Every structure is written in structure tokens, then in C-alpha cells.
Amino acid sequence: MTNREEGAWFGLYEQALELERPDVVFYYGGQPFDFLIASEAARRGVPVVFYLANGNYTKKRWCQDVDLILTDSQATASLYKQRLGVDVVPVGAFIDPNRVVAAQREPERLLFINPKPEKGALWVARLALWLEQHRPDIVLEVVESRGQWSDAVRTMTHALGQPRDTLRNVVVTANTSDMRPIYARARVVLAPSLWWESAGRVLAEAMLNGIPAICTNRGGMPEMVGDAGILLNLPEKYHQTPYNALPAEDEVTPLGHCVVALWNDTQRYEDLVQKAFRVGKQRHSLQANTVRLLRVLDALLGPAWPSTMPSGESAVDEGRGSLAPVTPGRC
């Protein structure tokens, strides 16, 4: 925004605070202009809640006037407690199952979403080359979002001295707002992310669909998959920006064997499917995480706040989960 636009926005925000008298201001953002959101609410005695879902913050000014910081994983809460001494409360992710859960599934493909370097695109490209040679019947489906699959293929094949733009065992799907057909045909979700993933929404959606996952043992990703995931411990050099280190064939071969095993061993695969459904119900239920959120807000805002808990004893039980206690604290 221009300075004039920022001024207009800030005027509207002040007006809303004065006229609406909100119970709470809920926001995210760590740029200097964003600091005004919290400070103006705090100046009027309005509690401020901040949503944190990344590992990027290295200083504390962003939370100076914040009363409660929420996040989607215990890993991110622990990261900021260790790094900045900040108390962060994990409440899980909020995913509407009606928008992501497939009605019927015919699992047959290995699924990778958003082929960017930080998401592990070069590792997946190297794996695709390995599978093309050893198991060409396993189809990799790549869903493009911010990243382009052809970039990863060109980078990897050029480094190997065999430049190519496409691979025969890969199907590329354009960015879409409806992931249900894609999840319907996914047998395994692949998420070898190299940067800090606070949670990994794709993994939570996979669990709700009963899809086992292979992901890196980093950030909040292990929490998202529980015992329904296979965790990858990659050398530290691959987790360094700009995430363009190229894996060698001997490094990607174990991953290839891991994928093949989930195609060959039906009993093991079905066991992981049942575990995925259980993890989805226990950790990623929209109703359960809403209960967690409302409890935290009740603790912050007090009995005068007109919150309405989801009805039914099962909703309350489901919301108890294994996330950290709800103890809101100031930065």
C-alpha cells in the first residue's frame, strides 16, 4: 500500500475500534505498520490475539502489545519459547472436512504439492528420476501452487548432464481450490519440506483422508502425522537457504525404497491408513480444535465474554487432545 492508503486504512481501523468496541482484536503480521494494530487496541483496553504459523521471527517488537499468541503446533510454541522466551499456545489447525475430504477414494498415486525448493522440490525430482528407472508404474502427481515443477526437473536433469523438461512417470496438475479429487487418488502424500513448517496443512488434510505421509522430521510436521507418517532425517546442509543443494542418487535411494515398500506391502499400508484416520480424528478435528480455541479465549477474556462452546459431551472430550495446556500469556 502507499502511505495514503495506509492512512486511510488506519483511519477506518480507529473508527471500528471506537464504534464497534470489539471484545478482541485477532490478527497476524510482523511489519512495522502492523504494530499499530496491536498498540491501538491495547491503548483502548481491547485484548489482542496474534496468530503465529511460521518460524521467521527473530526479535520481539511484533508481540510487544499482544496479550495472547496462538499457533498450530507444539513445535512452533517450543521454538519461540526457546528463541525469544515468548509463551505461545498451540490450538491446532482449522480445516473444514467438507472442503478437503474425498467422498470415495481409489488410491494409486504418490502426491506432492507445491514444487518449490524449500518444499523439497529437488529431492522429489531426484526421487522421480529414480522411480522412472526402478518403478515406472508408480505415478507421481505434482500439484503446482507457487512453484513450477518444470523448474525442478530442469535444474536436476541439467546437473546430471541429461537436460529434460518432463518425466514420463509424472502427472502435473494445475493449482486448484478443490483438492478432493486429488486426495481421492492419492495413495501416499510426500512432503520432504526443507524449511521450518509450523504444521503442514497438506499433512493434516492427508490424515483426515486416511492417507499415510512421508515427511521430514522437522518443525511441526511429525505432530501432524503422528504414527501414520514415515519421517525423513535429511543432512543439515539441505535445510539451509536457498534450499538448492542437489541430492545424490545414493541419498535418495532409501527414500525410493520407502515409497516402493508402501506399494508392495499391502498389510503395512492398510495399517498406516487406519492410523492416519485416527490421527485425523484426534488431532485435526475442526470441532475439537474449536473447543481448544474457545477455552483459550475464555481464559483470556473472562466470564463476561459471550462465547458458545460446541454442544455435546463428545465435542468437549474430543477437544482435550494432547496439545499444550491453555495458559495465555503476554509477550
The number of helical runs is 13
Sum up the overall morphology in one term. globular
Please tell me the overall pLDDT: 91
Overall helicity: 40-55%
Strands side by side in the biggest sheet: 7-6-5-8-9-10
Would you list the SSEs in sequence order as H and E?
Answer: HEHEEHEHEHEHEHEHEHEHHHH
The radius of gyration over CA amounts to 22 Å
Percentage of residues in DSSP E strands:
5-15%
Largest sheet, described in full? 6 strands, parallel
Q: How many E-type strands?
A: 10
Span between N and C termini?
28 Å
Q: Structural class from helices and strands? A: alpha/beta
Low-pLDDT stretches are: 312-331
Give your account of this protein's structure.
- The chain is α/β, with parallel strands linked by helices and 331 residues long.
- It has 13 helices and 10 strands.
- The chain has helices spanning 3-20, 35-43, 74-84, 97-100, 121-134, 149-159, 180-184, 201-208, 221-225, 249-264, 266-283, 286-301, 313-318, and strands spanning 25-27, 48-52, 68-71, 89-90, 109-113, 139-143, 170-173, 186-191, 213-216, 229-232.
- It has a 6-stranded parallel sheet, sandwiched between helices.
- Helix 1 (3-20) runs parallel beside helix 2 and helix 8 crosses helix 11 (266-283).
- The radius of gyration is 22 Å and the shape is globular.
- 37% of the residues are buried.
- Mean pLDDT is 91; it is low at 312-331.
